[in-house]
Amino acid sequence: MYYFINKYKLFLTIFISIAVVILYLFYNALTPKKKLPIFQPNDVNYALVDSSIQHVKRFHKIKSFEFLNQNGKIVSEKDYEGFIYVADFFFTTCPSICPIMTDNMLKIQNYVKDKRKVKLLSFSVTPEIDSVPVLKDYSIEKGVDDKYWNLLTGDKSKIYSLARKSFLVVKENVENNSHDMIHTENFVLVDREKRIRGFYDGTDDKDIQILKKDIDILIEGYK
Predict the structure, then answer these.
(1) What is 41-221's CATH number?
(2) Is the pLDDT of residue 136 over 80?
């Protein structure tokens, strides 16, 4: 037996190696790859969606926008064409969930630095407070890299409309005027076709890990 094994050692090594490769290829071929859902307004909690689109079940996309970033530069949806991106809504004076969300966005920023075609986007829900200089100071304090991440401010009614009619992530503050927003902790994953592919709790470390994996799934899907 030892003589046989020794005599055919090279052949057995090659045979086993080929068998392992074949089994691996079969496993990959037969194992379905995870595909991310495409979210529509009809799939989301109605409290976060404008009543005019709550019935929509197909073809929802992020609408056009144009605001100023922390550098005073005009940023629009055109700056995100061809990119996967993660978006959220925040304000710089928020004492509760926003600091945690910003810290977790920084984790995403560091994660996507070595990726291609991935960016971040944050909209202020208190643009009357979060002027360009305020956002600039905030971005420096927090370590925001403007190559990847824009903090935006502008007309409050337009931000409100975008939040409820495109990103589907803020509640209406019925106690005040119609353009007051109660933002959520949601991060939104948007694909290159401007479709929503995921919602994640921006204060939850487990959800941040899921978001990282989902970013990779989208990147892989475009290869």
Answers:
(1) 3.40.30.10
(2) yes
